[in-house]
Design a protein that fits this description.
With 109 residues, the chain is mostly helical. The chain contains 4 helices and no strands. It comes from Clostridium simiarum.
Amino acid sequence: MKQVKDRNYAFRITEKDLNTIKRKANRAKMSVTDYITESALEKKIIIIDALPEIVSQLKKIGNNLNQLTMLSHQGVINTVNLDETEESLTEIYWKINELTKVVDSDGGV
C-alpha cells in the first residue's frame, strides 16, 4: 500500500547535481521525489536496459507459436521444426543470465 506523502521539505542543490538527479530519475523511470527518497533510504534502484529487447523477442516467439498452433489445429501442418525457436529461447536465457550478473554486481543507476 502506497503511503500518502504529507510533508514538504526544501533543500538547496547545485544545478549540475539537480540535472544529474533528474537524469538518473528519468533513466529509472521514477519521479525525482521517489528517486531521492529511495536513494536516501538506501534502497537499490535497478535498471535493466536490455529488457525491452528481450520482451520483444519473447513476444515474437509467442506469436510464432500461436500461429503454428492454429495451423496445427486446422490440419494444415502436422510436424514443426522448432530448432530456431529453441535457439532464440537459449539466446534469451543467456541474456537474462548476463543481466542477472550485472544486477548482482552493480545494481545501481
